[in-house]
Every structure is written in C-alpha cells, then in structure tokens.
Amino acid sequence: MILQKRQYQGNVxxxxxxxxxxxxxxxxxxxLVREKRKSNHINHVSPGQLTKKYSSxxxxxxxxxxxxxxxxxxxxxxxxxxxxxxxxxxxxxxSLDIFDEKSHPLTREEVPDDYYKHDPDHKHIYRxxxxxxxxxxxxxxxxxxxxxxxxxxLTYAEIDICPSNWKRIVLGAILLASKVWDDQAVWNVDYCQxxxxxxxxxxxxxxxxxxxxxxxxxxVPASVYAKYYFDxxxxxxxxxxxxxxxxxxxxxxxxxxxxxxxxxxxxxDLSKAAMRRSFSADNLVGIRRSNAILS
Length: 295
Known about the structure:
Distance between the termini: 28 Å
Number of strands: 4
Strand order of the largest sheet: 1-4
Order of helices and strands: EHHEHHHHHHHEHE
C-alpha cells in the first residue's frame, strides 16, 4: 500500500467539509467536563492547585513544552489518558474485524477468551504507546496527530474503541501519523521489525482499511493541531499530570526564541517545496528499528 505524504494546510474548512458527521461527538474534550474536579473541595479549589507555581511580576514559570515542539513524555501521557477516557466512557462495543485482536493478534501469545471484558488502565496504554514511539523514534507531534486520526476513525467508521480493538486501532493511527507527519521515513516493515510477530501483509491490510474508513482524509489543519495541543494541556492540568515548571531565565528565553525561529523556517520550507514522498510496504528496504516487547 502506497501512501503519499500530504502537505498540511491551514484551512480548517477543508477538514470540516470532509465529514458530514459531528466530529466533536468523539472528541476527548467532552470527557473533561465529566471527569474534572471530582475530588475538589466545596469551594472548588483542587488540592493539587495549592502547591502549583504561579507567575508573578518578578518571576515567570514556564515548562519546556511548546505547541511547535511539545514535550514527548508528557504528550504521550496525555494522549494515552485521552485514549483511556475513550475506552472508559464508551456507550457500546461496536467494532470491525480488521481491528479485533482475537482475529488479528499482535503477538504469538494466545489472546484470553475474556479479553473483551477488561478495560486497560492508563499505565497499560501508556506502556504500549511509549514502547512503539521509543523503538520507532517518533516525535511528540506525531502523538498528537495519532489522537486526531484515532478520533476521526471513531467518528467516520461509527465504531468504539474497546478492550478487543484498542491496540490495533492505536497501532493503525500511529502507523498513519508517522508516515504523514514525521520527517523520518517509516515503513510498514519497520513496525514488523519492532513487533516481530505481526506480518507485513497484516500491516498493509490494516493500513488500507484505516485509510478507507477515514475516506482518505489525512489532512490536519494547523488550527486542529493547535486545538488538540491545548486541550491535552487542559487534560493534563485536570488530572494532575503537571509539566515541570521552571523560572524563565534569559538563556531559556533565547532557547525558546531559537526553537520558534527554527520551526518557522521548517514550515516555510515545507510550504514552498512540493514534498511528495511515497512509502510502500512492498519494498522491504527500510531503516532498522529497535525490537520491542509489548505487554
């Protein structure tokens, strides 16, 4: 299966017109209202906020995560927490055979008969995603786009992410996001080298179904990406997944300015050059990745 790398466009209208269904119906943002402040005091002050650092006129506290260069570890934690809430708050178990782990196992270990009854916890999901990102050397931006594609799939295909299919849905979203977003070429065979027990044919078939269910709408406008980034920041704050804050120094300010300038130049170059790289799973020549053991 050949997938061409698409250029990102800033026109959110292209994305909105591509779907006749309400995309927000499967957005993790809807779950924030249900879950946040459950343990608050009667005056709505969260215990976690009592020790939170706040900026003042003399000192500005800032973390090392920006919308153009998010912190990888924190972003993966937030994305997997959003996936956890999707599974936890689902209304049913609608699925498709291509994503069923019993029909298409990821490992040689036998899938338990009651595998569909037990929801994975956040740590389990985090370990699965972190293992793939570490072995494939993927970026934090790729994690955000992974969540975009995952939620888009749930909406377009009218399915739910549940215990029986969450690993293959997440894997498919990561596979697609790494091809579209990441600067480094990632082939289907690379994931077979990481997972070891999965075949190239299975990866090709899952990728084809994923793209067809998305109606080949892989465009992620800048406005959609930014919204997901800040919603994930809110999710982290509401669940005490705080980013490490440090006082803003002159050196850190210069570093952030340099990063912003570098990202601006990068996006300008991407918009000028008609980059159309193709990735084919039929060609088994690719970058060797690290082996991974999935639990």
